[in-house]
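quick one, 305 residues, struct below
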Amino acid sequence: MNWVTRLLLPIVVVIVFLYATATFQVAEYQEGVKFRLGEIVETEFEPGLHFKLPFVNTVRLFDTRILSLSTPPERFLTSEKKNLIVDYYIKWRITNPSDFYRATGGREAVAESRLNQIVKDSMKSQLSSRTIAEVVSGDRDLFMRNVIGTTNEDISGLGLEIVDVRIMRIELPQEVRESVYSRMEKERSTVAKAIRSRGEEQAKRITSDADRQRVVILSESQREADEIRGEGDAEAARVYAESYSQDEEFFSFYRSIQAYGKAFAQGGDTFVLSPDSPFFRYFNSPNGTQDEGDKDAAGTTLPAR
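---
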């Protein structure tokens, strides 16, 4: 080792020692607190490299980012004196490092323990004034805002801030869950029966009204049909009467021809009738009258028709 090395080595050692003991670096997400023999003398350091007196000053760096605190599920009592098991988590951060150090000694575990107890008391106060239905289906955001606001008031001197409290799960204790479900099932069944009964009553009312309207419509239709049929029959009778009055003999002949067509259209070829029956009047003479010589079975001459 030459003399240059022997000269520079102590200097390098002194520089490294001074850098390690007389400087400290603050990151953007950190807050530093400088102590002088255990007493806080300076806070609020800008991010970057800073100096301190070796052996006189000490520095503690605290993380000011948002931290998460997960807690085991807790049991709470509602206004109905029903137990609920609530699983939640807490988001918090350090806002004042000096107050945080004085209150907790700079230990996050102590801070989390105190935060958990304060949040638990606040949630107990909020849940004790609400029913199960209000907790489960009510305004959850308002409930959480009340918890956060109350908790921040209680921890104002700890140098901490609650950013958020969120409920992850709400359950009933196992010993009362089945009874509550059974009661809810009975209540829903009662409501369903009432709704079904009202529906059946309404269905019967609609059906009876439809039947009544059906009878009324059929009656009115039958009445109108009878009126139309009667008017048609009257008109037909009038037309027949007018036709008959124009040529009575032709009308009689036409009706007889229609009767012959209907009688012989049935396919029978045997008729048991008297030869002088009026049915065959047009078979006897062209004008439908009997001859003077025609006699009945007794030998009496039949009058001409």
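The CA atoms of residues 114 and 190 lie 48 Å apart.
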